[in-house]
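User: Fold this, then the next.

Assistant: Folding the first:
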Amino acid sequence: MGKIKNSDTTKTLRVFFSSPFNGMEKEREELTKYHFPQIHDMCNNRGYQFIPVDLRWGITKESTSSFHTIAICLNEINRSDIFVGMFGQRYGWNGIQDELLQNTFDYAQKSYFWLQNYRDRSVTELEFLHGHLNDVGAIPACFYFRDKSYDDEQLEICKEKGLTQRMNAFRVESDKSEMMLTDLKRRIDDTKDNCLAVNMNYKSPEEVAKDIYQTISKYLTEVFFASDSKEEDQVSTALAFHDAFYINRLSLGDQYVGSQNYMEIVNKHAYENETPLVITGSSGSGKSALLANWLKNHKSKPQDGKTVVAYHFVASAAQNAKTVLGVLTNIINQLLKSRQQPLEEHTDTKKASKSFNKVLTSLSKENCRVIIIIDGLDGIISNNKSERSIERNKQQSDSVAIRLLIDCCLILYWLPQITPSKIHFLLSCNIDSKEIVTELIQARQYPDLQMQPLKQDDIVVLTKGMLKLRGKSLSSDQMEVVLSQPQCQNPLYLKVVLEELSVHGKFETIDQRIQELLSCNNTEELFIKFLKRLEMDYNEDSSTNIIKDRLKSQNNLLDHNKIDQNRFTYDELNQAIRKYYLSGASLQKYYNALIDYFTTKLKSKGSSQLSMTVVPRIASELPYLLVMSNKLDELADCICNIHLFEWMVANAQVDLADYWHTTKLDGELLSKKLEISIKNELATVYADCYDRFSAPSEAISKIEGMLHSVSSFLSNIALYEWKEYFAKWRIRLIRSVIKQDNQLEDESEKLADAYIDLSTVYLDINKFDLAEDFYLQAQFIYKKLGKNIQVARTLNGIGLLHFLKMHYDEAEKYMLQAIEIHKEREDANEYAESINNLACIYMGAERYAEAEPLLCKSLKLYEDYYYGLRNLAICGSYNNLARCYRNLGQLDKAEVYYKKALNTRLILVNSTHPDIAESYINIGSFEMINKKNYATAKDLFSKALDIFKTIYSDDHIQIALVSENLALACWHEKDLEEGVKHFESASKTFYAMDQMRNSLPLLNSGFIEYYVDNQQWDKIRELINRIRHQSQCPDRTFAILDWMDNGKADNCRPLECLTTLDIAHHLCGEKSSKTVELYLDMLLTTYRSNYRANVRDYCLQALNFFEKNFSLQKVDVAKVYEILAASYSSSKEEDDIKQFIYYVNKAVDIFQKTNQWSQANASLYAFTVDYYLNNDLLDQARSLLSTITGTECSSGRDYAALDWLDNQLPEDQRPRRPSYQSIDAGLQKHPDNLMLISRKITDYVPDVEKIILMLENAGNVPTSHFTTVYDVICRDFPRCRQAAVR
């Protein structure tokens, strides 16, 4: 038996099908429709291109009239690898008297001399002779002769229908023809031992078609592929699909059709220029064909061992070909195999990316040229949103695209931006993929080779070549029709037309089919005609539609293998499918079918089988389908299936959060569904363990992992109560296993992990004592087990605990310890997290300059760790950096990072995710406070509010917070009518939740004024009632309330109980500048509200608090002394006066040491000076004035009083004052002060001009001042009366 001959450098399988034209149409149709696609798949999987040679049409009128028919048939047999012969009762075209046929013999006999002995035979027998009988066994051959009963049956049918001419197809032409056919059968039967198969009486076309397929399939599998194959590995398996893809794109085998300039450019970048080349063009423009032909040309050259080529065609049928991980794994292993190094298995994109760089660097050091082909970058998809490309309006300008690209992480993060020497990349992508084109060509500045439409000469060569491969050709008129259509300038359009013509079975209607195909305006319309043709070919009756079912089998749902899968790698075909089949009710019907399929699969699998088989696929597809079908109840049940839930937590947590919120169900209800699912699984696993006689601890361990997944997810969506429930459940299970296995609790790492899990819950809900207790228990276990990294985690947690308590010094101490451990262990992710947390501690302590470099370092570590993957942790770093820069006054940088966070989140999560709302709030606050863009802020707050309303109930704290922000933006815009609606909604929510401390004081004060202006007294009282016991209650609030109450009868006035200070004192239990500020404000409020007896007690409490937490030289302490002094200032009691003077001196002493007189109460010291003067305590007055005069606390009268007091002393005892306490210095600060003017006049008298000039410099001096000056001059200096009058 001869082996298949294959002279092409590309691997092709040509099968010649021989039979008379008439009467054998059904057999050929069966083969073409139902079995050729299966042979295509077999060949593609082995890297071969299957070419069936079927001359039902293709021998043109020109060829026939030029007597070329026999020569064409025999030439095609010469090029073929397998020969298949079929006969019915008809012998075929023959006749010694047929002039045309004999002329055809004359032409062919020039090349095939043996024909002179067979000029009376039919063309089909000549094919049998040349393909087999003349050289038996030279190539594989099989023969099939139809049983006469079938032909007789067809004759009767034709007779009944009156198809007289058609009857000739099922009966022998003459006795001589019958004799020659019988003799041919005998000769074939004699050689059956040297044939693949011989069947002398098959019963039907369906039978023989199936028999032929099985015969060819068996031979390929057992003989050809077995001898051609090598030891299989994952590289060989993958490359078989990539080889099949690129061979399919060759079209003409050894010949590339297109501009030779293209090939020269590719060669230059492959062998010389190390800058990556990007081949772009519209879909179907020939990008893949160019790379496929270059690859074929390279493989045909002698290899020197110093050049390695790795290639990946994204649209191939290889497993995971369309994922980043699949691309990297395939290329890495090709490179490793080329150097005979062990192959790698990768499950993580980030690690695969790093391995890719490492392998490239290693090959570069070996001085090895590496050429990497990646075709179809735009076709790469991802399993979850952290890898998905940016989705945005295609109408955006290029400049916007570039800006967004810079703002977000790169799409091709896995593709090295800087490559070692001798590394050459040949890349291709669709020109419409703006994000990829922008990144590669504009951002990275890679050179671009753009594919142009085919020229007419190229169309002719491509058309003739493709049809010649299949033993066919077009007439000159038919070629002109093709050339006249501009759509044929697109290579894909032309290829589909030619492939459709190749499978057309009727010579008589070929012109009509050409017109039908070329009537399509674009490739998408052409593919719709292709789909319609498939329906006609495959649908057996009106009740079935195999083509629609095949759409499902694209996702391995069904098992139809009748259609060539290579066609389904084109984007235009997928678009045609969606347009033709998947729109409106059809689309929903399709979704429902998929939902039913996945649901059935989910229910049909046992617990032990589920996670290993269908979970990833179902978890990736089913929730999406349920969302698209708006089946939200089923969506809730789906994501609460613990197997799907656990997989999504590990692989697609962002998507899971989206689905969770999309259900619009209460978090408690969903958590209960999870609880039921876990309990059901627990029962199932227990039963399974019982059946296998395995330990129950195995079952518990499995459930414990599920509980961990649930609690970690619930923490991320802030369902803390339920997280606590699942975390405690987990601890109980672990303890039960420990007890059952006779272990010690303080030696269980799992128990320590569970303690940390529970600690984070208590941290989130501010139960700090409980959190610290569990952290310390976990830390004890980790230290005992020598688990340093885990010890660092507990230190990080305790540091966060102190940060939340605002004990920044303690927090810093623990966080530095955690950082030191992570740094030593090179744990990049947790190292980055600890550095980020330390920066947040510094920001809490308002040490922004120290926080900024730490945040930058943390962000760099995160980016390196995630290797360019978009990640929500990075968004948190962006927000922290923005906040830091905002407080440092670097507003441009703050804005950049706020927007980075938003843009990245828009990629990762859907537009109604709470993280998106958070970014809107951050940017809105920035626009409102820092840029005064109130309209923009208002719009952003409105977007955030809309998002929260889709997630939370109307009385949720988040809705209240953003409503207040929106109210504040309206307030600034003077849109008070809209603002008051948002304000009232928020205020009522805060009050109902006992969260008024979160309400903005500015808004409360502002809207009280608004209510006063609009005389809305009930609303005033309602609002004051909500805020009166809170720290943001201003002094004026009590005054307004008092004024309103004064309008009532005495017995109707409510008792105003001032408890604000009690609340403030409680708040001041923590060392916080904010709470101290609130405390002082409320002390003043109490004092001004005539509760002076009470204020002394509160002040003494404050001093006790300050003594414990602050230096007693702080200005805040001085302010308390001032309030205490003021509380005694009106008393006439001797002891009270002593207290008054004592506290004044204490305050003065602090202000003098801190030199912060700007914060002193000037009125208090003016009152004290007056007290000293009125009681003739001149030395005390002089001492106090010597301290305060010239400071921010002094007035004009202080300069004058000090000058007067000094003048009361004998001249030799007068102190020498510094210039800043002189009368002149006082006049510079207070030029219109009467006492200073009066003191200065005495120096100028009798120089009237100086007096006048001084008065003019004083500016707008009141008339009373002039009268006083006149009196002084006239009384003390009569000679100056004239000047005084002037």
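Now the next one, as you asked:
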Amino acid sequence: MEADAVSEEGAMAEERPPRLVDYFVIAGLAGNGAPIPEETWVPEPSGALRPPRPAEPITDVAVIARALGEEVPQGYTCIQSSAGGHPLELSAGLLGGTQPVICYRRGRDKTPLVELGVFYEGKERPKPGFQVLDTTPYSHSANLAPPGPGHPRTYLTYRRAAEGAGLHALGITDLCLVLPSKGEGTPHTYCRLARNLNPGMWGPAVYLCYKVGLAKANTLVYEAELLGRYPEEDNEAFPLPESVPVFCLPMGATIECWPSQTKYPVPVFSTFVLTGAAGDKVYGAALQFYEAFPRDRLSERQARALGLLSAVERGRTLGGRAVRTRRAIAVLSRWPAFPAFRAFLTFLYRYSVSGPHRLPLEAHISHFIHNVPFPSPQRPRILVQMSPYDNLLLCQPVSSPLPLSGASFLQLLQSLGPELAIALLLSVLTEHKLLVHSLRPDLLTSVCEALVSMIFPLHWQCPYIPLCPLVLADVLSAPVPFIVGIHSSYFDLHDPPADVICVDLDTNTLFQTEEKKPLSPRNLPRKPYKVLLSTLTNLYQQLDQTYTGPEEEASLEFLLTDYEAVCGRRARLEREVQGAFLRFMACLLKGYRDFLRPLTKAPSEGSRDVDNLFFLQGFLKSRERSSYKLYSQLLHTQMFSQFIEECSFGSTRHAALEFFDSCVDKVRPEQEKPESTSLVELEELSGSELTVFIMPPEEPPVPEGSEPSPQYCYDGFPELRAELFESPQEQAGALPVPGPSRSAPSSPAPRRTKQEMKVAQQMAQKSAAVPELWARCLLGHCYGLWFLCLPAYVRSAPSRVQALHTAYHVLRQMESSKVVRPDEVCYRMLMQLCSHYGQPVLSVRVMLDMRQAGIVPNTITYGYYNKAVLESKWPSGTPGGRLRWAKLRNVVLGAAQFRQPLRERWQRQQQQQQAAAQEACSSQTVIEALGVLEPRGSPVPWHSGSLSDLSLTGEEPAPGGSPGDSGSALSTQSTEAPEGPSGRLPKTGGQQDEASTPRRGLGARLQQLLTPSRRSPASRVPPPELPADLPPPARGSPLDSLLHPRERPGSTASESSASLGSEWDLSESSVSSLSLRRSSERLSDHPGSSQTPSLEILLSSCSLCRACDSLVYDEDIMAGWAPDDSNLNTTCPFCACSFVPLLSVQTFDSRPSAHSPRPAPARASGSKDAPVPGGPGPVLSDRRSCLALDEPQLCNGHMGGASRQVEDGAWAYLSPLVLRKELESLVENEGSEVLALPELPAAHPIIFWNLLWYFQRLRLPSILPCLVLASCNGPPPPQAPSPWLTPDPASVQVRLLWDVLTPDPNSCPPLYVLWRTHSQTPQRMAWPGPAPESLNLDLLELVLRYVGLNEVHKAIGLLLETLGPPPTGLHLQRGIYRELLFLTMAVMGKDHKDIVNFDKRYKSAFNKLASSMGKEELRHRRAQMPTPKAIDCRKYFGAPLEC
């Protein structure tokens, strides 16, 4: 059963998912019929102007042999000199040389050449699609190599563009030869062939270079305008940027003249990124295409420029020409779903050039914008069917802490290779000017996004334009670093700036000048660089095997079946490349957190400077000496300063930075191989995930008997008409979110990041194998639950500062309990509240404690700490009064420590007296052996005044309760501790006979020790002087455990402080919670009352396993929980079956109802067995009265008919891991305010009652019990000043019980109930069914005798014999261990029973019986004791509960 079974947590209405697309726009020239302006739009040159490029591409290349008398063919151009002007002569000076010369021809009669190559005959085969130029135009050999046997025959090879490529096909536009020996390099934007054209021993090396471009003529360029948009109104959170049109057409809106028979080129897809002032990104995708343009809108000058008019005969129009214009359609989104955008825009373009259609184009646009959401966990896969033949699939992005971007690391690696990719990484780290250019505009954005993503966690702070329009080309002359992507045709007019590093993605080259040359890769850390290069090289070799087909052409069957299998490999390689760069950055910044400088004093000018926040020189000295130059430049970059500021003060990237810290901890820079575990985990897509189908827009209805007739036909992309758009409709199933969910806190402090959840899950899995660690792990999550509720608790407290100090002491208590890896969220939550309420000094103390606990604060915690120190108001002057009180506190604590030897000496004396008393007594009866009642005959020889040191003269019990009643140490909402008996109904009967006696007798002292408290801690009146509290002595015998019982929170917890005349608890067990007791005493400003609590709540986690009909108790349930935050099941210790435990709740309201007066409380004075407060108390021979002292008040407020039961229910008992996940979800959706609303118990009962159980179990202050009373009172009146006002906590009493609240009448009663029935001892409940005859009083006394004589194995054997073998024997729902434990606790009292000693004796008895009966037989009959994991859970979660 998974966590989603908690129906009340998943019942929240789902919020409407975000749209995939926000805007649709059309860009181009205004189409209103007005004449085009005469002035063409030409950008201002940002570099040196180049000579104009030829208008026609190269269609043929040839080789001629000068030595054989061959001439250059007509129309060909001969290359006679190198690019630097040096003369060229291949095989010069060699006998028999042909002196080959390369020639080329331009034109448009053929398809252009697109690629050249050099072929060595005999060593390889020609590449597919290439033709070998082996002869000259005069039929001679076209061998370029010099003659000779040692030189391979060298030929040129070429490849043409495909037939029908059209006018705009890419082709070779220029050729040149370079001589490296003359200092010549490859010209910018040229591609150089790697093979030497002169491989002989004589002559210089010669290399052929060619340039690929788009040769166009007769073109006018204008700035693009916005022609249409949808929706017309701007979104307030995301207004449409004004610069969108120029990004849709980065090279401008053009008017071109083509031959009439020229086919339309394939539309060009491009992407771009717009960055806002706050650093948020807007992703755009555009599809550029050509349409017909009317000639009448052109002037004569424009027509002549386009070649439409004859240059010789003025005014004569040339025929066979067509005018075209370039337009673009685009979408804008906050998500980089570029493949989906491409498919949608392509569908719209095809829709506009086909037809007719029954639906307008506007219907498809509005339907896509309003009805297609971005994938979410609730909708992981969305299949959009735009038409019967056009589909696209949207998948939820991989869940990763890395920021979502449009980067494609595979395209980066495929375009540049491993070496150039690392060189670019080095250039970005040192903030150089980078200019990335390509003829493929869609490639620019993907590569530029990868460049800024590979330096994670650093964030590029300088200008960043992945696809730069020509109108913004001036940025190339900016004096600051930048990363700019631009179309390669820009360099047809301009040379690149001298101080810019140019990256050509088409030729895989890096162009840079010597004066601005970046650092060499040798400056990188040696081993991390070696691992990075090796990893990228390995991945680079795998790229050819991946699928690279166009996804927009995929069929519906492919999208539903093979899409994930085919594209999953490519996604995995993408993550592996990104993980390689991430590992390198983690190694580069390894140990940086050790050099952060936290703020520890009041802020001053320059506190936010990097030098004050980070120890730069120390970090630099800790690096390799060979990398000093790199680190010196890196540490002074803007992005590193921003990174340190984000780490010091927090930012919106807190989750990503925290993830990077975990990566830093995982990497080992000294290794020469990457780690076995991947830093970036890729979630495998599963075909079984939910797929949401979105159908195309509905066609208009057709009248019966008629055929549908198409109405919409387009000659081009139409102008958008507002009346044809569909109105947005509410999406089915997307209900509006209720009001409280809108108040979710913006602060991430209460929430764990995904990385923290992952680490916590791993720690839980490791701890589950070790019993002690598992108990401490659960305990740590319980404290995490309390700190998650801390904001509501602090707001409810009358003194916020005091509540913060209470939380600090709870934090110290958590540290002292040695939980598994103390939760960092606890420290972070307290730091955030310190910042909010202006307590910087307390925040510094929390940070110091955190470091002493061995916890290195992550980015989120560190940011909140520095915020608290920097932004809070520091106290002025010296806190004289507070300092004096602190000194007084230290003196008192020191005095208490000095009294410790006196206590130990007194304990030794008492032990000697008890030993002498035991030797004098005879062990004839079981009661004597147990030490519960006095042996028949003579009383125990007590010495007069043996307990006189425990009391002072003038000690008086307070009215209605014991003198030392102080309640729970950490409870603010309850009148008793979870396992203590304090806070019960007052005892009104009896006289205080010895109220003024200086020294009371033994009976009065025993009454003080054993009688439950009769009033709430809120109403206690401490006596003026009380002695110091005494620690419990070591238990030597059962009688000893009775004479020196354990300290009870309700009776003796404040005795040590009474002598100081205050209500501070200075006992040895509560020194760590000194201030906590005072601050958590009461949340209400109303004075406490000593009256009966208005509400009593009983809780029990004892659950029945249906498989074996056995009761499973709290510690066994804890031990059976799985280390999974989504699993509600526990494992039965008897049958090993899984079941969901339940938390039973009973609420009793003792307030008078509206129709009947409140009955008087039950009085015990009429009973002769009732002890008299202040009197001599019961003697040891009075068994019934003595046992009654350890029981709750008769009926405990609900058995005497004075109260009415309000609620009786059972809810799922959740593991702290599961509960924390559900609570975090609740707080995230509805805000922390929901934890203080009276509607919480009814709206989220599972969360509420589980929180109340754990907080009471650990005695943590809480306002939850007050919410029960507030919910019983109904909704607050409208004039209530604040929702944080809660009832007086003294009016609510919470009791945690070990056994079931409501017994099964058909089951056999437990032995302890039978004992109380036979001995006429008052008990909480009467058993509804009859008891078997075999379970009589004689059996119980005999069992007790065996236990008292330390013969537990005989007691076990007796019970097994009495019950009989299963299944015919008598069945008890409780195991043998529980029956014996509860029976002895009922006889001796919960606080007088040493369970640890009992466990040892029972284990010894079990092993003794196992030798004769066998362990399996004993387990089968449920005689085994709890597992070590269960025992440790009981140990760490406090004292035993009530039976």
